[in-house]
């Protein structure tokens, strides 16, 4: 409990994890995309994925984000789930979403999928 508390945002009442400066993304932690009016997190060169801050898949015509070996998940990039007979891509902890991988929404009591693009909240709570 104490370890988690030390990584919480310093804004009173906020229990989100800090990114930097003691703040979560919602309260000003982390770098924002340098494109005017964009509120997404910067990934590379001060830009978010939508504005060119990540590597695109090397397959011609594919606009998805490249993972491992320059390939997106659909074209074989990323790590496969470690559960026997599962062919899905692992999202974290070596597992796909169905087998326990991935982030859950930071909203208390919500167990839905959370995404980086929604700042660790599900679509409903973003």
Automatic annotation (TrEMBL):
Where in the numbering of this chain does the WRKY19-like zinc finger domain appear? 30-53, 56-77, 78-101
| Any coiled-coil regions, as ranges | none
Q: What is this protein called?
A: WRKY19-like zinc finger domain-containing protein
Matching entries from InterPro entries are given as:
Znf_WRKY19
């Amino acid at each position: 409990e104490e370890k988690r508390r030390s990584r919480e945002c310093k804004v009173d009442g906020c229990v989100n994890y800090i990114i930097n400066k003691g703040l979560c993304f919602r309260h000003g932690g982390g770098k924002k995309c340098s494109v005017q009016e964009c509120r997404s997190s910067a990934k590379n060169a001060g830009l978010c994925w939508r504005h060119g801050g990540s590597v695109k898949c090397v397959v011609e015509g594919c606009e998805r984000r490249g993972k491992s070996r320059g390939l997106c998940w659909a074209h074989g990039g990323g790590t496969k789930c470690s559960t026997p007979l599962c062919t899905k891509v692992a999202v974290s902890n070596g597992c796909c979403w169905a087998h326990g991988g991935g982030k859950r929404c930071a909203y208390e009591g919500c167990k839905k999928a959370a995404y980086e693009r929604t700042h660790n909240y599900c679509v409903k709570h973003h």
